[in-house]
Design brief:
- The complex is a heterodimer.
- By secondary structure, chain A is mainly alpha-helical.
- Chain A has two domains: 91 residues, D-Maltodextrin-Binding Protein, domain 2, CATH 3.40.190.10; 192 residues, no CATH class.
- Chain A has 13 helices and four strands.
- A four-stranded mixed beta sheet of chain A has the order 2-1-3-4.
- In chain A, helix 6 runs parallel beside helix 9, helix 6 packs across helix 12 and helix 9 packs parallel to helix 13.
- Chain B is α/β, with parallel strands linked by helices.
- In chain B, the strands form three sheets. Chain B has a six-stranded mixed beta sheet, sandwiched between helices. Chain B has a four-stranded antiparallel beta sheet with strand order 11-12-10-13, with helices on both faces. In chain B, strands 2-1-4 form a three-stranded antiparallel beta sheet, with helices on one face.
- In chain B, helix 3 packs across helix 4, helix 3 packs parallel to helix 5 and helix 5 packs parallel to helix 6.
- The radius of gyration of chain B is 23 Å and the shape is elongated.
- The chains are: A mainly alpha, B alpha/beta.
- Chains A and B meet through helix 1 and helix 7 of A and helix 2 and helix 3 of B.
Chain lengths: 344, 315
């Protein structure tokens, strides 16, 4: 009974130190949800997508106001020409209707919503003129479940969160212990060094149990984002990803003597993945030459696996490639960290 | 030859020869020889920067010497590091324990590293932290924290306890409490290596002392031997408005040594009553006046002063 297990005590130390740090708790658990709310609001499903159309006051376009207003897809705003120009430039309206004698459209052909708005406005005007009746077109709105942006971005947010909390949490924790000479004190005991490193990784698994379910639950309740694969598969991917980034966090912090030094390294490691690894937009947008590099990044692999389970309902064996990349990063970073770790 | 399963019980607890360590251009430890016997408390006394911490950390296996030999309990760090660590208790100069762990949790952690050792209960008991067992480390006083740090060092029931400046920054009562813990450990047969820049601490706890300065041992022996090496157990310190050359003062009866500290002259003697009357006469005759006079038992501070011309605590 009195037998104390060093690994267990080290893990408990880490967990206790963390749970007793209220600020850390907030950043870990509050941040991803705030991010999800933000993105959810920005990309929320609108009841009916309407195009904002400006009509210049005193122009010939005012004549077509009734016709434009009849269209449910158009949101008409009457504006002074100068205001309308500004609004168009800023993207507040998608097209401006004006003209002294002849109706004129002003829009930005580089923007998809601007082109759409122009077509919609044109159609409304033509229809209102009562000329040749356009061919009836039935708009068929077909929505695949899980195909919205929010469905796609939630697994990315989970992946991003696993990366940043894992790396920052471990990196800061380790450097702080090194600065305060706690590591030096530990290695003057017979503690096995790998137990310490392992405890950092395993303690992360405990946090992630508290960290990820709230996001999953929140995404489901607030945005109806569902996990289409098995929850168990999701758990496996999450745990593997957690350990991978915990290992990378250890490696990033293995030599740094100061928090500033560690921050630099952590940012250097994380920033490319933040941009390249398909958190907010698909990594397939990068040129082909970059793809092998992009795909080898651990966050790309994690996001791929998470979306596989979340969006595509894939079983684990179908994600073998991504999982192997993650496992390789985990093992290599742990072993390397163990070799080069600075204890004092 | 030593039995491979147990460390040797004969021979010195610590032996090092020609120890050498430099950091860049600064020599931290220079040709240092040291032998600590089993069951004794050995004190390394010296001012800040004398090389005490470097020396003790080399012996603890935390730093590597540039040259020289180190044997602890008959073992070397290179070959037997893991076994050695299990037999030693280490308290670092500025150990910071995890702020948000309680006393009991901290001791459980440290106890878990050792294959054998005291129970957590007895550790809490020996450093008298029963009432603080559930208190977070950051809420402890300096003295309590330091006692906890020593308790961590005692977790593996060590053969040797290393204490690096254990009472720096503590109030007198906390210092005495910590000394009690060390004396209890020693009474149970433990060996202690202590560094300090407090001569009273060195004198109180140590059976033998080495005085260090600039990485070298100036002198070593029992506190009494060191003090006797001054040639007397009393020091007469006086100041006057006349300058006396050393040899004039030396010529006074029973004076064994003459030193200067600032404005004051210090005379070492075994018999102060034979020195003071002729000294006063000397000043009188010179037409001067005495501005200060006191006598005290010679201390390790005087030993240090005699060897370096500086006071231990003026650093």
């Amino acid at each position: 009974m009195s037998e104390l297990n060093p690994l267990r005590e080290l893990i408990l130390m880490r967990i206790r130190a963390f749970l007793r740090e209220p600020e850390a708790l907030f950043w870990t658990f509050g941040f991803p949800i705030i991010m999800a709310i933000g993105l959810g609001l920005a990309f929320r499903e609108k009841p009916a997508e309407t195009s904002p159309v400006a009509v210049e006051r005193g122009s010939v376009a005012e004549r077509y106001l009734p016709a434009l207003r009849r269209s449910p897809e158009i949101e008409v705003r009457i504006m002074d020409p100068a205001d309308a120009a500004t609004a168009l430039r800023k993207g507040d309206v998608a097209v401006v209707l004006g003209g002294r004698d002849t109706l004129a459209f002003r829009y930005d052909p580089g923007r998809a919503e601007s082109r759409v708005a122009r077509l919609l406005a044109d159609r409304a005007v033509q229809a209102g003129a009562g000329g040749t009746r356009p061919v009836a077109v039935r708009e068929r709105a077909e929505r695949q479940p899980g195909s919205r942006y929010i469905d796609w971005v939630i697994p990315g947010i989970i992946g991003l969160n696993l990366m940043s909390t894992g790396m920052w949490g471990i990196g800061f924790g380790v450097v702080q212990m090194r600065q305060k000479k706690q590591l030096k004190r530990l290695i003057s005991t017979p503690m096995r060094r790998r137990d310490y490193l392992l405890s950092q990784i395993l303690a992360r698994l405990a946090f992630v149990v508290l960290e990820v379910p709230p996001i999953v639950l929140f995404a489901w309740l607030a945005f109806g984002v569902r996990v289409s694969g098995a929850l168990l598969s999701l758990a496996v991917v999450v745990l593997l990803g957690t350990m991978t980034f915990a290992g990378l966090g250890l490696l990033a912090a293995s030599r740094a003597r100061t928090i500033e030094g560690a921050s630099g390294i952590l940012n250097l490691v994380m920033l490319p993945m933040f941009v390249l690894s398909g958190v907010f937009f698909p990594s397939s947008r990068y040129p082909d030459v970059m793809q092998p590099f992009v795909k080898a990044l651990p966050l790309t692999a994690l996001n791929g696996a998470l979306r596989g389970v979340y969006n595509d309902g894939l079983p684990l064996y179908a994600l073998g490639g991504s999982l192997a990349i993650l496992a390789a990063w985990m093992v290599l970073s742990f072993l390397l960290a163990l070799r080069i770790f600075r204890w004092q | 030859m030593a039995d491979s399963d147990s460390t040797r019980t004969d021979g010195p607890a610590i032996r090092c020869r020609a120890l050498h360590k430099r950091f860049g251009d600064t020599v931290a430890v220079r040709a240092l020889d040291l032998e600590v016997r089993r069951g004794e408390c050995f004190g390394l006394l010296g001012p800040n920067g004398a090389g005490k911490t470097t020396t003790i950390e080399i012996l603890e296996g935390l730093q590597e010497a540039d040259g020289g030999e180190v044997e602890v309990l008959g073992l070397t760090w290179r070959r037997d590091g893991d076994r050695l660590r299990a037999r030693l208790g280490v308290q670092l100069q500025e150990t910071e324990l995890a702020d948000r762990l309680t006393v009991e949790e901290t001791l459980r952690l440290f106890r878990s590293f050792y294959p054998r050792g005291r129970t957590v209960e007895s550790l809490i008991d020996v450093v008298q932290l029963e009432e603080k067992r559930d208190t977070h480390v950051r809420d402890l006083s300096g003295g309590q924290r330091q006692r906890l740090s020593v308790a961590c060092a005692l977790a593996g029931d060590p053969d040797i306890l290393f204490l690096d400046e254990p009472t720096t920054g503590l109030d007198p009562q906390s210092r005495r409490q910590l000394w009690d813990v060390v004396e209890e450990f020693k009474a149970a047969g433990g060996t202690v290596l202590l560094t300090t820049h407090f001569m009273d601490e060195a004198e109180k706890l140590s059976d033998r002392i080495a005085i260090l300065d600039h990485g070298e041992i100036l002198v070593q022996g029992t506190p009494l031997e060191l003090i006797r090496s001054l040639g007397g157990e009393h020091v007469i310190e006086f100041a006057s408005n006349i300058e006396f050359p050393d040899d004039v003062l030396h010529a006074l009866p029973a004076v064994t040594e003459v030193r200067t500290r600032g404005e004051s002259r210090l005379l070492t003697t075994g018999e102060p009553h034979r020195v003071i009357p002729p000294l006063l006469e000397l000043i009188e005759r010179g037409g001067g006046a005495l501005t200060a006079l006191n006598t005290h038992h010679a201390t390790l501070d005087d030993v240090f002063l005699a060897r370096t011309g500086r006071a231990l605590r003026d650093e």
